[in-house]
Design a protein that fits this description.
Layout lengths: L1 H20 L5 E7 L1 E2 L5 E3 L3 E5 L7 H11 L2 E8 L8 E7 L4 E4 L2 E5 L2 E7 H8 L18 E11 L2 E16 L1
Parallel strand pairs: 4-11
Antiparallel strand pairs: 1-5, 2-3, 5-9, 6-7, 6-10, 8-9, 10-11
Length: 175
């Protein structure tokens, strides 16, 4: 009887181990926002950022540097079907009009959640790289919807899993 119980426990454990290891790697959910909780989920899904008005004679680079040092972030959070190794994950912010990608500045792994961010100033500098030395446009990028996406690439045993979450942010100024 004791051998049958031991054998049954071993078989059950092997079955659980096999089921747990064979789960397909996929994205269960994805979210964007401006702040992350300690568990790696989005705690503020707003992507509207408000700053003091820039100096009228400033160059575009000056505005983006100011925004960079304010420290506002564009965050992402992906809930996966299972944990992954850090080496198997690539995350980029994509500028949709050019398709250019820029590696996320921070990536965290908490259980089956992959989250992180890039600084808003860094994204603006990358997205508008060709305008950095030009004077600010009349509206100084105010109130326009600026589209982006975050592309997650998971390198798995059965090939890459790619998931892209689209979003947009806005810059506004206070009086």
């Amino acid at each position: 009887m004791k051998n049958k119980i031991s054998s049954g426990i071993i078989i059950a454990l092997m079955l659980l181990f096999t089921i747990g290891c064979s789960r397909e790697l996929a994205v269960k959910s994805a979210a964007l926002g401006s702040n992350l909780s300690p568990d790696g989920t989005i705690s503020d899904n707003s992507l509207v950022f408000t700053f003091k008005k820039p100096d009228p004679g400033a160059a575009t680079r000056d505005l983006f540097n100011f925004i960079y040092f304010e420290g506002d972030t564009v965050c992402f959070s992906f809930k996966l079907t299972r944990k992954v190794n850090e080496k198997d994950v690539d995350i980029q912010f994509i500028e949709p009009s050019t398709g250019s990608g820029f590696k996320a500045e921070r990536i965290d792994f908490i259980d089956d959640n992959v989250s992180g961010f890039s600084l808003l100033g860094s994204l603006l500098e990358q997205f508008y790289r060709d305008r950095l030395t030009q004077p600010l446009p009349e509206k100084a990028f105010c109130c326009d919807t600026i589209p982006f996406s975050v592309r997650l690439v998971l390198h798995g045993e059965k090939g890459d899993v790619i998931h892209e979450k689209k979003g947009s942010f806005e810059i506004r100024y206070r009086d």
